[in-house]
Amino acid sequence: MLPKGMKHLKNLRYLDIKGCYELTCMPAGLGQLSCLRKLSRFIVGKDNGCGIDELKDLALEVNAKEKSHHRHGNDEDILSGLQPHSSLKKLCIMEYQGVSSPNWMMDLLVPNLVEISLQKCERCHQLPPLGKLQFLKALTIVRMDALKHIDSNLYGETESSFPSLEVLKIVIAPCLEEWTTANGGQHFPLLSSLTIRYCSKLVKLPMLQSLKELQIEGTNVGLLQSLMMSAH
């Protein structure tokens, strides 16, 4: 265990407990550490003051873990309870095994995000409406095995989406087969760099007129053919 009085370290900004594999829970009251900005792991406990809700008012970078055996249903509960502060600028979610995105992402309760990275969210089949994020400049999607479509669900049912996005990377999405844009809508107006790697079922990209850099690797030959045709 960690010292019970850690909640009194009011100026604590970084708490790194990587490698502390024998911990069974966190000390009660960590939510009182208003200066805390980075927490390498959070182990969910059952006692009062040791639950995931301790993190709800903290603007920090955290990796939440349950000490019990990994269960997919609990992933969704944990991530839903990890709603970040609305001023958060950078968000990275790794190895999330839930099927759907948390409510705070679907409802865009973190509107000031500038950078988002979703990695190894292998069971999640639908992306939240990130196109509505006015300040988002970089989006990285890695190992999203269940993702099949990039469509209006991502754009957010709006005629103008991703107004500030400059860099988009999609790596290892083996089921991604369709990327559509709504007719007449303005999507990705500032996108300058696009990376598509190991998306073997994707055969067509939308027209991206602002694109300056395109990296493609391990993709379907049909995707290359469609790109060559659109270039003419």
From TrEMBL:
Stretches assigned to the R13L1/DRL21-like LRR repeat region domain: 54-144
Task: Indicate the transmembrane segments per the record.
Answer: none
Tell me any Pfam family this protein matches.
LRR_R13L1-DRL21
Please give the name of this protein: R13L1/DRL21-like LRR repeat region domain-containing protein
Query: Lineage of this protein's species?
Result: Eukaryota, Viridiplantae, Streptophyta, Embryophyta, Tracheophyta
